[in-house]
Amino acid sequence: MPRGELRIYLGAAPGVGKTYAMLEEAQRRAARGTDVVIGFVETHGRQHTAAMLADLEQVPRRTMEYRGVEFTEMDLDAVLARRPEIAIVDELAHSNVPGSRHDKRWQDVQELLDAGIDVLSTVNVQHLESVNDVVAQITGTTQRETLPDEIVRAAEQVELVDMTPEALRRRMAHGNIYRPDKIDAALGNYFRVGNLTALRELALLWLADKVDEQLDRYRSQQGIAATWEARERVVVALTGGPEGETLIRRAARVAARSKGADLLAVHVARSDGLAGADPAQLARQRVLVESLGGTYHQVLGTDVPAALLDFAQGVNATQLVLGASRRGRLAQIFARGVGVTTTALSGSIDVHLVTHKQAGKGRRAMAVPAALSRRRRLLGFGLAALGMPLLTVLLRTLPDLTLTNDILLFLAGVVGVALVGGVWPALVAALGGSLLLNWFFTPPYRTLTIAEADNLLALAVFVAVALAVSWVVDVAARRTREAARAAADAQTLAALAGGVLRGDRPLPALLEQLRETFGLRAVSVLELAEEASGRPERAREEHAWCVVASVGESPPCTPEGGETTVPVDDRITVVLCGRRLEAADRRIVEAFAAQAAVALRQERLAEEAATARPLAAADRMRTALLAAVSHDLRTPLASAKAAVTSLRSHDIEFDESDREELLETAEESLDRLARLVGNLLDMSRLQAGVLGISATAIGLEDAVPLALDELGPAAATVGTDIPADLPAATADPGLLERVLVNIVANALRYSPPGQPPTITASAHAGQVELRVIDRGPGIPEDQWEHVFLPFQRLGDRDNQTGVGLGLALSRGLAEAMGGSITPETTPGGGLTMVLRLPAAPTSSEGPQE
Fold first, then answer.
1. Equal fold, 6-222 vs 233-354
2. Which of 283-287, 443-447, 508-512, 829-833 has maximum average pLDDT?
3. What is the CATH number of domain 233-354?
4. Fold of the 693-838 domain
5. Can you spell out the DSSP letters for 379-444?
6. How many CB atoms lie within 10 A of CB 364?
7. Does the pLDDT at position 507 exceed 60?
8. Which one of 285, 403, 438, 618 has the largest count of C-beta atoms within 10 Å of its C-beta?
9. pTM of the entire structure?
10. What is the topology classification, in CATH, of domain 6-222?
């Protein structure tokens, strides 16, 4: 049975018209004679959406009960039994009611697809797992219902339902999305223009990535290697030379000319791993690329132009940026160079050859380390000086040996010298051996004249073979040493990269690793003061430098205080103490220094983020406070003003009962206003740490009735069960009353009719526990902490429930008194708030200090 196809309508926010567009497609399919049924569609009370359900068959929903409340879900078995050609299933990221076959609706859809049924569905970008944290950062709201991106990426079709933020807000204001009582809160919070613009960009970028994947898949299936310029991608080739930064900035400017262009940097490393670029330069250039919004890549290859073009074609690059050759003019005569060769083979990819300061100056000659140690080279010279004469004496004592045998034995001697001392001792042995062979073993003897042409050829071959073998032995030794060095460097750099990623403070660990790797006494990272930057005479002053980080004994405080100094940039310098490093070691140290700069930048960004976090929280608090004041002070003020204005009016005569009712309305409104202002002031004092606490022993049997009286007639039905022998609690009487009023008021608000809250109390382990139990809808455990945030509620705020300070203030006051407030699930459904306070000491224990 072929698997069904999934079509998803993707939106940036609720209300853009995903469900409407999905139902329009369902109506078109049905009009063409396709068997279409509605598995589940949520209209959210929107008339235009509900009208689209006309003439479409709907599979009855399944009713389920959870915690005493009935819910309806898609009847998966009924849809499977009906077996339509197309099933319409709304809200793909929806979480099913506990007890359903699957936890998530997308799992239901997967079963429909496996059964060969095509599915049309909807999803908002905030439900995608990969961008969930970004959406939370933008909107301040964490989306609990998410689905894996792979589910949406695997869909055969994903259609973006787009709408400008201004148009969406107009739809909201006209009442086409939410009920009128939720419009103000939505427009002032989630549906702000900035939020909607950012969400729209997220949806567009996510869909663009999926389109890229589909394009790459199609090109791969069709075997298309040519570049399709659907999107600008600029690739810059890095050699690890000093010209790299110039090339990167030039490529970034090229990419900036096209909106949405990608910048990719690539370095082709030798596949044998022996001769490589400067790792410190590459590390700095990688940081620069990433700071400009690009990505860094490294590929292996022996043919650099071919490797570059393979990479560029693989990423569908449109432009390739290369540096002009550093080879001298004479060298370019014999070999065209990477740039010219790449340009000739680039095909449809545009190649930019960028000039730079090092162009045409030739490659800097690198010091080639000796393949063998000095001791082995001296031993080889000694062996050549003594071994060749000794071999001559030995061969003179042996009769009946032909010239061919003599040459072979001398060749073996030269190979032995090459194995011991390398190419130069072998060269001496080969030349000396050829003279000895000519003088003692080639007719006419004891003269350098060679009578026979065969003997001349034999001696010439001997010298050539001796030199060739010596060169091969020397190259093999050199390669072995380079390979060992490369392996050690690679291991060190791998450990370096891992060290930067691990730990909260990678910089000290990185410096300690550098110190241990090279056996140093101390390592310091110094930063030049800003006022001394660009002034060499000030940079020599000791107080111009600041030690950012250091490890080891007596770390240096100035660049002159160490044996090795590695500048990172104009202001950051790494100073090493203990011993001078070899030139080859310095390359690795420069890589360490570059990574140290990255680690320092990470630490400072983390510190700035930590500093900004409380400021951002305070800013959110102020914003919420202003919104709360403008929203929630309006009602009591309006009620009180209306009552007072009516009483002062001379146009209407009020009887005594009317006057009492108006006065009672004004008093209730002003009392509500006073409680609100008191809560706001107490929350401000709590956050500022200046709330005064006057703790004393107080019995809960006295405090609870006072709190219930404060709540008025609404609390008359609240049940209480407080033991007579309950110990007194240590608390501030006024603050305790405020805590109880807020907790009980919250329980009354959510208790169903006929099931009022209950208050019980007990003592345990030196604490007095008071439980406020309600039988309301309850709160999921993963959202318990959310209800204690100031100005927050589960769901949209309406116009009657206040600013959402009650539980946040109650927890703050309880903790200020040495207690705590924690939620628990009420057995059978509902929420229990547990207030714990320290028990007051008995008279035998004496007063607490």
1. yes
2. 829-833
3. 3.40.50.620
4. Heat Shock Protein 90 (3.30.565)
5. HHHHHHHHHHHHHHHHHHHS-S--HHHHHHHHHHHHHHHHHHH-HHHHHHHHHHHHHHIIIIISSS
6. 9
7. yes
8. 285
9. 0.39
10. Rossmann fold (3.40.50)
